[in-house]
């Protein structure tokens, strides 16, 4: 049942899940049956919450002996690598653990009737819907027992096949193991679990790998030259970052003021110098609350987390004000902003480029982002991205017309 609860959590709070690894999960597929369609024995047991553990409670003083007898019979069916059968786990310890667990008032075992139907199928919210391609926002790995697991792995395999074209999803079978994978074959299970983690860490960043750092980026046309102050919002706190473009200030500004050439140069240098000082202060000290309102004050710990998050992602995602090469893009959904304009959401694969020139470099470490474009019409938003993509396919050194306007990191 832990796999179902963990998946529900990842569905609601994906920002707190780095990699969802499900070990022999129940409820991957939907049952297709109603409770009134079940055999009368199961309906009666479900009504009164009678579970296999209830036998131990009914046995009273003979409960411990009953548990010992059950475990001896059960262990005889396990592979020789099982930690109880091999002696790595003391039989008396596991007997006492099971007895005191089963003899208590029922709690988690009731979920057998509230969440599952025969065959470990889900009564409601099956995992193949919770983790469907349209909803899954975290990388996913399955581990099943490859020898007698009563959780059907074919449902996990079917889900992985659905996710292969858009998400990071894998499945492994642990040899000589049943549902209690970590007990039946601990050495292979531990190694496969480590391999699953390391494989994802080493996986190339492509559109097959879901947003590793759960970053959203807002792109815009290259802005006017000159230093621009932009906030890079996090979920709770934000660091205000000053982007130095090292471009000459817009000449139209000084021409309108009839400033001499020397004064223009001096003013540009002065603005850049002051901007550098302000940037050094704001990066480390200037935090502000952004995003959804919170019911508590922002603490020093929040500031530290935000700072670490920004620092950790600088090597993977483009920074505010950096040119970005869009290598692949497709539309995901649309909405309306507070001004009534249509907001188009695209998922794009792109990479950082050498600022301020804005040319793509080889090799390009592509990173997927969510692109948010606001415009009255689709033509004004989608077409520039597609045109640039076509240009980039023809010329890998095509100049990028896009820069990162803001980056939101979900803490």
From TrEMBL:
One of the GO biological process terms: phosphatidic acid biosynthetic process
Stored SUPFAM superfamilies: alpha/beta-Hydrolases
InterPro entries according to UniProt: AB_hydrolase_fold
Gene Ontology MF term list: carboxylic ester hydrolase activity; lysophosphatidic acid acyltransferase activity
Gene3D superfamilies in the record: alpha/beta hydrolase (3.40.50.1820)
Family from the record: Belongs to the peptidase S33 family. ABHD4/ABHD5 subfamily.
The name this protein goes by in its record: Serine protease family S33
């Amino acid at each position: 049942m832990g796999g179902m609860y963990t998946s529900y959590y990842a569905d609601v709070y994906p920002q707190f899940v780095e990699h969802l690894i499900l070990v022999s999960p129940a409820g991957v597929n939907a049952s297709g049956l109603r409770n009134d369609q079940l055999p009368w024995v199961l309906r009666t047991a479900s009504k009164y919450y009678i579970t296999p553990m209830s036998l131990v409670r009914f046995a009273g003083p003979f409960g411990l002996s009953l548990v010992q007898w059950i475990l001896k019979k059960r262990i005889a069916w396990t592979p020789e690598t099982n930690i109880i059968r091999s002696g790595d786990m003391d039989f008396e310890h596991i007997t006492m653990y099971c007895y005191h667990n089963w003899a208590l008032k029922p709690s988690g075992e009731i979920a057998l009737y509230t969440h599952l139907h025969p065959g470990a199928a889900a009564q409601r919210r099956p995992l193949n819907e919770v983790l469907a391609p349209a909803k899954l926002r975290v990388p996913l790995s399955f581990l099943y027992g490859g020898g007698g697991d009563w959780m059907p792995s074919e449902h996990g395999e079917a889900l992985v096949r659905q996710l292969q074209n858009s998400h990071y999803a894998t499945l492994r079978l642990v040899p000589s193991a049943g549902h209690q994978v970590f007990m039946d074959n601990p050495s292979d299970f531990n190694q496969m679990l480590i391999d699953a983690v390391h494989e994802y860490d080493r996986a190339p960043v492509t559109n097959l790998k879901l947003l590793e750092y759960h970053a959203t980026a807002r792109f815009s046309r290259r802005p006017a030259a000159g230093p621009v102050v932009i906030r890079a919002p996090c979920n709770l706190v934000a660091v205000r970052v000053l982007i130095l473009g090292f471009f000459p200030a817009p000449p139209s500004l000084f021409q309108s003021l009839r400033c001499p050439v020397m004064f223009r140069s001096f003013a540009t240098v002065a603005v850049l110098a002051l901007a550098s000082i302000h940037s050094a202060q704001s990066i480390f000290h200037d935090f502000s609350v952004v995003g959804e309102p919170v019911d508590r004050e922002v603490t020093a710990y929040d500031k530290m987390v935000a700072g670490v998050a920004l620092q950790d992602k600088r090597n993977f995602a483009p920074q505010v004000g950096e040119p970005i090469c869009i290598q692949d893009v497709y539309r995901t959904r649309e909405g309306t902003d507070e001004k009534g304009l249509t907001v188009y959401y695209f998922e794009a694969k792109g990479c950082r480029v050498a600022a301020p020139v804005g040319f793509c470099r080889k090799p390009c470490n592509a990173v997927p982002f969510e692109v948010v474009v606001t415009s009255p019409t689709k033509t004004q938003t989608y077409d520039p991205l597609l045109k640039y993509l076509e240009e980039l396919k023809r010329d890998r050194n095509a100049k990028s017309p896009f820069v990162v306007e803001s980056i939101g990191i979900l803490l």
